[in-house]
Amino acid sequence: MKAVVIGGGIIGLCSAYYLQKAGWHVTIIDKGNLNDNCSYGNAGMIVPSHFVPLASPGIVAQGIKWMFDSKSPFYIKPSLNLRMANWGLKFLQHANQKNVTNAAPYLRDLNLFSSNLYNELAAQPGFDFDLEQKGILMYFKTDEVGEEEIKLSEKARSLGLDAEVLTQKQAQLLEPDVELDVAGAVHYHCDGHLSPDKLVQQLKESIIKNGGDLRTNCTIIRIGTSNGKITKVQTDKEDFTADIFVMTGGAWLPDLAKMAGIKIPLMPGKGYSITQNDPVLKLQIPAILCEAKVAITPMGDRMRFGGTMEIAGINNTININRVKGIIESVPNYFPNLNVALPEKKDIWFGFRPCSPDGLPYIGKSKILNNLIIAGGHSMMGLSLAPATGKLVTEMAGNVPLSVKIEAFDPERFS
Ligand SMILES: Cc1cc2nc3c(=O)[nH]c(=O)nc-3n(C[C@H](O)[C@H](O)[C@H](O)COP(=O)(O)OP(=O)(O)OC[C@H]3O[C@@H](n4cnc5c(N)ncnc54)[C@H](O)[C@@H]3O)c2cc1C
Fold first, then answer.
1. Residue 119: what pLDDT?
2. Is the CB of 374 under 6 A from ligand 1?
3. Which residues pair with 6 in a beta bridge?
4. Helix, coil or strand: residue 407
5. Tell me, what CATH number does 153's domain have?
6. Is 161 contained in some domain?
7. For ligand 1, atom 9, which residue shows the shortest CA distance?
8. Mind listing the pLDDT tens digit for each residue in 268-317?
9. CA–CA distance, 118 with 94 (Å, rounded to integer)
């Protein structure tokens, strides 16, 4: 049986990996070379702690304040573009407690399932992607954010997640090399981290070694459909047929879905990262700086600083003020940790595929019966990739699913 996987980001690679393990012949088609997508330079965190979607109470008011700060971590560009307006409206409708309450158990289960699959994957021959399960530390400086984070940790514990509130002194014991200027932290023991570039490379090698077909620099330009099925995928090089098609595509998912006659609201959320090789000072445990919304991840002998969510369409410009915003926030939390502003060529950026309700799109299409859609993972694509790949494989094989996916219906906005 043949499967064509559209898009070779982490969601496409994990889908192909598990499909292949289940006996499918897989072909992955990607317009790039797999080193130039969102899955390559992200912060590498595995985050069951992130059970609150982006569309949540308070985000709209905070977003409006941040719109006037050129270094802010979150920015929605005002635009008359129809796709943006449609997405914005749906985002506003979902930025409430009801959305968070509905989403939390689904995101928790998917994340915990994924985290277990990462442990299994890391034990396979040919895989060594610096996986560590030391948790992450959410640092806060202000009383207001501290209160919110402590409340969130209580909610996390009520969902069965392992979260511990630490004083500044307790957190300092975990990070002996860096000075901490924080009010406290929450240690999410349930989280982990890895090196995403190594993972991407090793998945690619494993898929090819096991007979998979990887077509890079091959752009999908049309999707042929007939009688409720995809008949072929046309690219700028050749056409592909298959028994089942898995549509990923990250921030480009709406364009691909449109080719198949399906509407999927999604906007790219641009973020930046900077990586230090052999840093003088290194954190032991990944950190999230809560007020600044910056992530810092030790990755093998490197350390990566990432942040910013710019909802402004796909564009390749580097907004240096936002990169400065990331860098300048670091010594506010770690006074002896200074990061130099790199040259533009050393600044990585990627487009998070953001759905308006903050939930991914995972499921079989009801419109085209040989299509499975897997995308819209926003800030959690790396974290949720193995679980998504496994679910895609279960759906392709018509076997019972490992976790519930009703909330992720890809055609829920159609
Ligand atoms: C700064 C930053 C930090 C992040 N940190 C984390 C983190 O710590 N943990 C976490 O879980 N997530 C994190 N993320 C989010 C995560 O990186 C994404 O959710 C994830 O990479 C999305 O994977 P994807 O496979 O859906 O998309 P992508 O990786 O973007 O892959 C989509 C692929 O589809 C291909 N494609 C699109 N259109 C076509 C076409 N027409 N023809 C052929 N191919 C096509 C593209 O070329 C691309 O390779 C972060 C993101 C950013 C920006």
1. 98
2. no
3. 29, 247
4. helix
5. 3.30.9.10
6. yes
7. 45
8. 999 999 999 999 999 999 999 999 999 999 999 999 999 999 998 899 99
9. 31
